[in-house]
């Protein structure tokens, strides 16, 4: 029994020491070929790890691009909302401007000139001596006319009755040197106003006579 055990042990040791060589002979592969095979496996593992790393990096880039795309979509939606709000605000302002224009138009028609031109009229008449007379028999018409002219910065020195009370339209008289200023005033007062030159001596530069359609 001890002899059989010893023999068995020797066989195992022999196989361990020379098993590789025996397998090499059986497989037909040399040590160089086995080493080369091991190296190719290592290279394959390296390439596999590299591929996995690149795959992770690509996935991260895809996620980043997806996030960027979503951000762009959110920004576009926000800009579209802002654009809609601005258009609504512009429409509201346009409606308000139209409503104000409709309110101002009757006043411009009444005074005969746009408000910007009336400011020029104020400069044109400043410093002139002006008298207002009632030509329809009602002194209130002269007072109203005086009030309108004073709002334009005119200094009205006298309000009185005209020599006659059958004036059908407002009439502006002026000295020759003030003809241009007087015609500007006629344009300001509107279509129911006429212009005539002063044919008699007067201390006033312009005389405004109210008619029955002041």
Can you walk me through this structure?
- The structure is a single chain.
- The protein has 2 domains: 29-111; 115-210, 2-Layer Sandwich (Alpha-Beta Plaits), CATH 3.30.70.2390.
- Mean pLDDT is 79; it is low at 22-26.
- It has helices at 2-27, 31-111, 115-125, 139-151, 179-189, and strands spanning 130-134, 156-161, 170-174, 193-197, 206-210.
- Strand 1, helix 4 and strand 2 (156-161) form a beta-alpha-beta unit.
- By secondary structure, it is of the alpha/beta class.
- Helix 3 packs antiparallel against helix 5 (179-189).
- A 5-stranded mixed sheet has the order 2-1-5-3-4, covered by helices on one side.
**Distance between the terminal alpha carbons, to the nearest Å?**
152 Å
Q: What is the number of domains?
A: 2
At CATH level 3, the topology of the largest domain is Alpha-Beta Plaits
Q: Total number of helical segments?
A: 5
Structural class: alpha/beta
Number of strands: 5
- Side-by-side strand order of the widest sheet: 2-1-5-3-4
Main beta-sheet strand count, sense and barrel state? 5 strands, mixed
Helix content: 55-70%
Radius of gyration: 55 Å
Overall pLDDT level: 79
Order of helices and strands: HHHEHEEHEE
Please name the CATH architecture of the largest domain: 2-Layer Sandwich
Strand content: 5-15%
Shape type:
rod-shaped
């Amino acid at each position: 029994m001890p002899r059989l055990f010893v023999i068995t042990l020797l066989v195992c040791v022999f196989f361990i020491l020379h098993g590789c060589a025996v397998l090499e002979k059986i497989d037909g592969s040399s040590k160089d070929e086995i080493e080369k095979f091991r190296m190719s496996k290592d290279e394959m593992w390296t390439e596999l790890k590299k591929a996995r790393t690149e795959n992770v990096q690509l996935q991260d880039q895809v996620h980043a691009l997806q996030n960027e795309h979503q951000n762009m979509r959110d920004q576009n939606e926000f800009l579209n909302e802002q654009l809609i709000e601005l258009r609504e605000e512009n429409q509201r302002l346009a409606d308000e401007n139209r409503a104000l224009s409709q309110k101002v138009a009757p006043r411009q028609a009444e005074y005969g000139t746009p408000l910007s031109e009336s400011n020029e009229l104020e400069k044109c008449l400043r410093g002139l001596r002006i008298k207002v007379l009632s030509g329809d028999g009602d002194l209130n018409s002269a007072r109203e006319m005086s009030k309108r002219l004073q709002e334009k910065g005119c200094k009205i020195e006298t309000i009185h009755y005209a020599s006659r009370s059958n004036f059908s339209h407002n009439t502006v008289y002026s000295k020759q040197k003030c003809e241009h200023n007087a015609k500007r005033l006629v344009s300001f007062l509107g279509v129911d106003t006429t212009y005539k030159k002063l044919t008699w001596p007067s201390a006033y530069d312009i005389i405004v006579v109210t008619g029955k359609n002041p």
